[in-house]
Amino acid sequence: MVKSKNKGKKINKPKRTLKIEKIKNGIVIDHIKQGKAPEVLRILGIDENFPGIVSVAINVPSRILGRKDMVKVENRDLNGKEVNKIAIISPDATINKIRNYKVAEKYKVSLPKEIVGIIKCPNPNCVTNKSREPVISRFIVKSKKPLILSCTYCERELKGEEIHKIESK
Ligand code: CTP
Ligand code: ZN
Known about the structure:
There is one protein chain. With 169 residues, the protein is mainly β. The protein has two domains: 83 residues, Aspartate carbamoyltransferase regulatory subunit, N-terminal domain (Alpha-Beta Plaits); 51 residues, Roll (SH3 type barrels). The chain is built from three helices and nine strands. Strands 2-3-1-4-5 form a five-stranded antiparallel sheet, covered by helices on one side. A hairpin with a 3-residue loop joins strand 2 and strand 3. The model has no long low-confidence stretch (mean pLDDT 90). The structure holds cytidine-5'-triphosphate and zinc ion. The site of zinc ion (ZN) has 8 residues, from loops. Zinc ion binds next to loops.
């Protein structure tokens, strides 16, 4: 006979909230713009071959943003270029570095004055697309909100969704 553990007790109702588990070591990228978590995964090069544990939350309620995305990656750090890429697609994102279950470091991403080697200039005649020798792309941040970038070489301006096509390398 199978004895019920709940004998005599009220059976718990299923919880309405589902929290992503805390991580031991790694990074939590929080306050990601709603719907941009897949792009953050792409920036980090996380695909089906990634060996570690990755938790992704999309469209979760947030006090500040209304809705937000979140990405947790165990045993992974971020380099400066990755942080800059995240800042471009999600200017309010917060990076938390977790060490032994504690938030060891927390900072909000910030855009640099110049964005170098991250975005391809859409102008086919720009020297960054025309030259035989590789010329590294370079954009000046003209405005942060809304984000407006200007190519240093051809002065082509980039705004809104145009900026979200970030080179993966
Ligand atoms: N977190 C985690 N694993 C840990 C510690 C924290 O996954 N071992 C996550 C928390 O769930 C949270 C984020 O990291 O999503 C930041 O943690 P914390 O600063 O404790 O939370 P808040 O105060 O809510 O952060 P904020 O004020 O930045 O919203
Ligand atoms: Zn250009």
